[in-house]
Amino acid sequence: MTTIERMKTVLESVFDGEIDPATVKETDNLRDDLEMNSIAMLYMVMGLEEEFGIKFENSDFPTMNTVADVISCIEAKL
Amino acid sequence: MKTSKYGKVFDIRHFPMDMGRFVCNIFRLWFRPKKLDAKGNKYKGKIKSGAVMISNHIAMLDPVALISAFLYRRIFFFASEVVMGRGLSSALMRGMGCIKIDRNIADMEAIRTGCEIVKKGHILAIFAQGQIQRSGNFETFKAGGVLLAIKAGVPIIPVYISQKQHWWERKIIVVGDSFDCKARCQKKFPSMQDIDALTADLLSEMKNLKAVCEKAQGINSEDLGK
């Protein structure tokens, strides 16, 4: 599975039907398009940490505005 | 050294924290904390394991009130950068069990530290309102505590701290029933919807505790608005 596919499985379990993973694109903005608040971002990040076996730092969050940014961050840590 | 089931009474690693608890013991003379349960009866329970204690934030000395009410346990707190200060002040606050949290961002590092603490069997107290709200109402109520409890797999202990109407009054602390998030949503991996629902349930429980507290103080909530 590619990174975006694995990320979509995390989004599916975290948002349980609120976000349709099939419609998520790399250009989607986390706050504007996916309507994530800070708690949702935190929970998504927790799920990504478990899925990929990585650790996010606080300094990663300002750089994560779109799905593509999150994928870049994940791949940089792998 | 005397040993209790909650850890050594005196532990050199927690020396500043234990000195802080000693000082809070003196504050018991001022607060004279009276612990009630969710039904308004005297609280006779003991918190025996790791837990997230979620409380309202009504005054600056709320952490001292909580420590003086639960002296048998070491309690850690999240504190904003403003409270933590810098340099020696920050080091002292950290030694006394404060964990710096940035309220403006999703502070992953603070959450991770909090999880480690509760998993070790300690209590982490979180003021879910995020700041002091002297009205006692819950204008804001953040879900971070629920998230942390789910992640760490520990129960939440909801607590309501009274606001003294007169200086001679005892500080009333209403301790709610243990709130097990995973048992309530019955899922291995709760979704955001579940977390929002759990937060709403917790808020409802906090409001019940507030009503119990006001009844114990002899306050009629309808009169408060007049």
List its traits.
heterodimer, A: 78 residues, mainly alpha, globular, B: 226 residues, alpha/beta, seven-stranded mixed beta sheet, two-stranded antiparallel sheet, 9 strands, 41% helix, 16% strand, disordered N terminus
Topology:
The complex is a heterodimer of chains A (78) and B (226).
Chain A: H1 3-15, H2 38-52, H3 67-77
Helix pairs in contact in A: 1-2
Chain B: E1 3-4, E2 7-8, H1 15-31, E3 34-37, E4 51-55, H2 62-69, E5 75-79, H3 81-84, H4 88-95, E6 98-100, H5 108-119, E7 123-127, H6 144-152, E8 156-161, E9 172-175, H7 181-185, H8 192-217, H9 221-224
Parallel strand pairs in B: 3-9, 4-7, 4-8, 5-6, 5-7
Antiparallel strand pairs in B: 1-2, 8-9
Helix pairs in contact in B: 1-2, 5-6
Mean pLDDT of chain A: 87
For the largest beta sheet of chain B, what order do the strands appear in spatially?
3-9-8-4-7-5-6
Report on the biggest sheet of chain A: none
Distinct helical segment count of chain B: 9
Number of strands of chain A: 0
Largest sheet of chain B: 7 strands, mixed
Q: What integer is the average pLDDT of chain B?
A: 85
Q: How does this model look, in words?
A:
- The complex is a heterodimer of chains A (78) and B (226).
- With 78 residues, chain A is mostly helical.
- Chain A is 50% helix and 0% strand.
- In chain A, helix 1 packs across helix 2.
- The longest helix of chain A has 15 residues.
- The mean pLDDT of chain A is 87.
- Chain B has 226 residues and is of the alpha/beta class.
- Chain B is built from nine helices and nine strands.
- In chain B, helix 1 crosses helix 2 and helix 5 crosses helix 6.
- Chain B has a seven-stranded mixed β-sheet with strand order 3-9-8-4-7-5-6, with helices on both faces. In chain B, strands 1-2 form a two-stranded antiparallel ribbon.
In short:
Chain A is mainly alpha-helical and 78 residues long. Helices cover 50% and strands 0% of the residues of chain A.
